[in-house]
Structures are given as structure tokens and as C-alpha cells.
Amino acid sequence: MATELHISISAERVFSFGRLNVSNSMLASIIVSSLLILFFVAVNRSLNTKDKKIRPLQNLAEYIVEGFYGLVQEVTGNHQKTRFFLPFFITFFLFIIMNNWFGLLPGFGTIGFVESETATEHAVLLQKEIDSPVQTVQAATDQPAVATEEEVIVAENADVKEETSEHAKKLFVPYLRAGTADLNTTLALSLFTMTMVQVVGIKYLGFSYFKKFFNFKTPITIFVSILEAVSEFAKIISFSFRLFGNIFAGEVLLMVIGALIPLLVPMPFYGLEIFVGFIQALVFSMLSVVFYNVATIGHDEH
Amino acid sequence: MNTELAIGLLMGLGMLGPGIGLGFLVGKALEAIGRNPEATSKIQTNMILGLAFTEAIAIYALVMALILKFV
User: Fold this and answer.
1) A146, A248, A250, B21: which one has the fewest Cβ atoms less than 10 Å from its Cβ?
2) Is B62 in Cβ contact with A245 (below 8 Å)?
3) CATH number of the domain at B2-70, out of 1.10.287.3510, 1.10.1160.10, 3.30.420.40, 1.20.20.10?
């Protein structure tokens, strides 16, 4: 039992808010979002227009923004486009990297509660199990053959159900889970990105953007446009699975190593996970900017 | 038992391609750095981006294996 690991591929429900189920990854991403919002509100407040002194917070924020400006400028090569894409880039990057790194904090995935919601159901099923042998005995005394068999099957079913609910009862639910270690979060991010790609394309090219998907000049272009349309959906999947897979695999790796040798050995893996979190955030936001940029360039121009 | 076999095959075969790809990537990047040591930082960042993409293919296999194992 000591070596049994708690690995759940999906986020678990922590509490319900009306009909909205709040999962542990949602909770973590809300915390991350509010921290980011607080940071930037604080930066906005610290902007000092009276004397021309730069305060430390403003300095930090300027460092972040300028660094990313250069990065996006390298991709687009156009200041107007850069100014348009930069907010998306920084938002994606900071949100993803903070979510990745928050998942490494102690307490994530380890502090939680044992799911007790199934307890009532469990009791009911137990009652059923107690009832059914009596019925079987009665049936056996009254009518030997057919009824007994039926009752036995019922009793067996009750047994199986009881076992499963026993297993569900012991379910451990952590309060917090890294936001990006949940497929829902990454799918939402990638859906937003790919929708924004279409929006950017329409903004820059107008309706001639759709020539990419509906081009009936020659059979070859028809085939190419079908491929373009399919690749747009493939990008959603690859975006979401890349981020989710990397972060979730990292969590599993840390958990397995921690279970094998808990002392000192997981340390280099934590370093690796910090690096992977940074790289994945960079890859996600960089790729989204590259796709925005590709969408702004007309099909005939390149 | 069938699922376990599938997971083993999936991981083993799924890691083959990305492994070869990562080897090529790092090898070529080191070659480039050896030829032009001044461009080390530029080559390194691009290499790491490429590594992330190549690794992602292995991660897809890993995700499928995890889904088979835990869902």
C-alpha cells in the first residue's frame, strides 16, 4: 500500500458552486490568474508621473515587456504587428509558466482530502447486501431452483457494487493541481489561440483569408486547401497535448522518483521540471505568435 | 494483460523516432557550434526549441500510454 501512487489523469472535483463543479486545477489557475492580475495592478499603481523616478516594480515590468518585445519583433519584423501580438504573447507566456511552476510547489497534489461523498451510497448498498442473503435463504426454503439463482445474482451484483464504492470511498483528492496538468485548461488555451489565428487572418487580409481553405482553381489547390483546413484542427490537438503531456508527465516522473527514493534524488528532476515548464511556456506562446504572423501573410505573397 | 503489452509496445516504438530525432538535432547543433563558436547562443536557443518539438512526439506516445494505463 505504501508504494501505491496517487496518479489521476483528469482533474478532480473539489467543491460545487451551484451547478458548476470546481476542480482542483481550476482552483490553482484562478490563484495564478489573480496573482498575475494583482502584480500588474501593482505595477500600474507604482507608475509615477510626477517626478521622473522609476520604481523597482516598474523597472521589473519594463524588463519583462521589453524582453518579449524583442522576441516577438524577431518573428514578425514589423513594429505595428508586434504591438498587436505582444499582449497575447505575454499573457500566454506568464499564465502558462506560472501554472507550470506552481505545480512544483510543495502542497500541490499532496495536501487534500479523502472523498467521502460516496459514503451514503455505500451505506445503502451495504443495507442491500445485508438484505439479499435473507431473501436468498427465504427463496431457497420456499422455491428451490429458479428464484434462488436470481437472488444469488442480485446478491453478487450488490457485492460488486459495494466493492467499487469501497474503492471510490478511499479516493484521495488534492486541493490543488497544476492548471496546465489538466487537459481542459490546455485545450481551452489552444482553442483560443487557433480562434485568434482566424481572427487575425480576417483582420489583416479581409475575406481573402478564406482563399486558404476554399481554393477551387485546380485539383491540386482543392487538395491543398483541404489539407490546410485539417491542419488547423490538428494544430489545436498538438498544442493542447504537447503542453498537457509535458507537464503531466513531469508530475508523474516526480511522483515515481519520489516514491522510489524520496531523499535528495528528486532534486535534479525538479530542476529539469523547472526548465521544461519554462521551455513549454516559451514554445506555446512563440508558436502562437508564429501562427498569427503566418495568418497575416497572404497566400499569394509567399 | 493485453493492455500492458500495448503500453509496452507503445512506449518502446513511440520512443524510437524521437530518440533518433533528438540525437540528430543535438549532433547537428554541436557540429554547427564547432564550426562557428560565435553563434553558440543563437544555435542553442533554436536547438532547444527544436528539442521541445521533437520531444513532444515522444510525449504524445506517453500520454496515450498514460490514458491506456489510468483511464
Assistant:
1) A146
2) yes
3) 1.20.20.10
